[in-house]
Amino acid sequence: MQNITSTLKKLFYLWKRSQVPVKQPTKISKIDNLIIFLICILISITSSYKLLLTSPLNISNIFSWILTFTEAFVGSWILILVSKKENPTLSSRQIILIVTLLLAVQVSKLALAATISPLSLIIPPALIISQGMGSITALVWVSIASISWPEPEVSFNNNLFFILLVCASVVSLLGGRIRSRAQLLQLSIFVPIGALFSQWIFIGKDKISFIEKQEFVFANDNIFSDSLLLAIVMLFTILFIPIFESIFGLLTKARLLELADKEKPLIRRLSLEAPGTFEHTLLICGLAEEATRMIGGDIDLIKTGALYHDVGKLHAPSWFIENQDGSKNPHDEIDDPIKSAEVLQAHVDEGLKYARKNRLPKLIANFIPEHQGTLKMGYFFQKAKEKNLVINENYFRYKGPIPQSKETAILMLADGCEAALRAMNINASDKEALETISKIIFSRQIDGQLDNSNLSKGEIFLIKRSFLNVWKRIRHRRIQYPTSKNNTFS
User: Fold this and answer.
1) How many Å apart are CA 140 and CA 77, to the nearest integer?
2) Which CATH architecture has domain 260-474?
3) Could you tell me the residue ranges of all domains in the chain?
4) Number of H-type helices and E-type strands within the chain
5) Coil, strand or helix: which one is 483?
6) Most buried in the list 141, 161, 202, 415, measured by CB within 10 Å?
7) In this structure, are residues 210 and 224 in contact, taking their beta carbons and an 8 Å threshold?
8) Which pTM was predicted?
9) How far, in Å, CA of 366 to CA of 48, rounded?
10) 114 pLDDT above the threshold of 60
11) What is the C-alpha to C-alpha distance for residues 205 and 207, in angstroms, rounded to an integer?
12) Nearest residue to 394 (alpha-carbon basis) of 320, 338, 343, 452
């Protein structure tokens, strides 16, 4: 009967996992929705009010004004919807940033369109968005910003419009992949140079005759000054990106690499005060990175998140077995499974405090609670049962939440498999290692820990294989070196 029940549970689980998981979008408060709505209204007014003021009041012109207003408003909401579709975890602050940048560009078009190149208006905001929210969101923003011009439209060369789209698209695509401030600086130099030569080729060499006269005028017909202005604005944008990161919660690749520096104070403390935990962290980084690479996830994010996932153990390092180094186990001394479970939960709570104190980005801080999810503390739960204590199983479960992304789910699986793989006999076969990995991962699945992670069955299979590959690399035998008669190495 027990076997039948177990089989039915497995079948039910497989059916449940066959359903396509849908990533739940971040909830936005009513106040934030109102702010976003008002900004979209302002964008529409900016795009259409000049048409109403400069044209005679008749039905045709009023209809044109309504049409322009509606187009701008709908375009703004399409931008928001597509951005959230591509990146469901966008926060309300980031959406406000997207529409505020669009509003700023529309106002600039209205006020400066006659004296400034559209390249300098659209490309810098595209760089900010691609750095913090990805290339797809930036491309959508560029599309809306490029086609939405205040009516009546400011006319400019069609070739210039083509150059604008190409340069802005290049910045959007490369901006989302750039991994250092130095690469950003290179981009801010090469894009204006590319724009200069493109305008020279497509618009005409006669436009740069001012070079011979040593003139320097910021005007729409002045190709060289347009490109120089673009370079200056992009350099200032790079300087302000850290401010945008702080205010709007953006997490750029460069910021991730800075946080992953092992000389950062929190990581340095972990290596000195909890060396066992630090060693465990490095091993998990290797497992998690390989798995994330295999499924095409965000490698920089998981490497950085893995480094910080156990910083909460700094509050009491000796209470965790990897830091005890053969000394007495405090859990044995108190002999109270419930208090021991509270200590384990405390490392998550304290970790979140450290994250707030050190101003870690939310996406990094999420690794601290989500890598434990609502897992049961099986060892202490079993100890409590042996003592015949009247207990509630929830006392022996972490508070959660369960993993909300593929990266935090991979870290949970790596955390569970690391100790088991390291404890395996060096002569263990690949089949035995894979069975151990599969058993641990399946236990997380049937416990519902991966339900919100959006991991597919195919990706879970790849994760198992990647963990096995890492284990095969670290368990290799060492050659025993021969020694001389006086026991010194030759």
Assistant:
1) 11
2) Orthogonal Bundle (1.10)
3) 30-253, 260-474
4) 22, 0
5) strand
6) 141
7) yes
8) 0.81
9) 43
10) no
11) 5
12) 338
